[in-house]
Write a structure and sequence with these properties.
The protein is an alpha+beta fold. The protein contains four helices and three strands; from the N terminus they run αβααββα.
Length: 107
């Protein structure tokens, strides 16, 4: 699943991040060069709501987390680990694409 591979790449680029706010993950997906998420459906970008619905079959839901003085919805990296291991293993040739990195982000 391309979505899982792209999200793994985003978490990898966010070195050490244990969670990402929904807003940030969504924005980073739309910034990927390939353009799949920026022109997801009939030329329209992937919405945050649609992103959430696409992750439900993988057992991934956003959570509410306090970040400083505000409360935000976030995706926790730990919730993706099962999907990452299934769809984007570290060793190529085990059912996933060799390239599990996202495209270069636009400058």
């Amino acid at each position: 699943e391309q979505l899982i591979r792209d999200i793994k790449g985003i978490f990898t680029q966010a070195r050490g991040a244990t969670f990402l706010p929904v807003e940030d993950l969504h924005s980073l997906l739309l910034d990927i060069d390939v353009g799949l998420w920026a022109e997801f459906e009939r030329g329209q970008p992937l919405s945050k709501a649609r992103l959430g619905r696409m992750l439900v079959p993988f057992g991934i839901l956003s959570r509410v987390k306090r970040i400083g003085s505000r409360v935000a919805r976030v995706y926790c990296r730990a919730d993706f680990e099962d999907a990452f291991s299934r769809y984007c293993p570290d060793k190529p040739g085990r059912g996933a694409s060799k390239n599990c990195n996202v495209g270069k982000r636009a400058a």
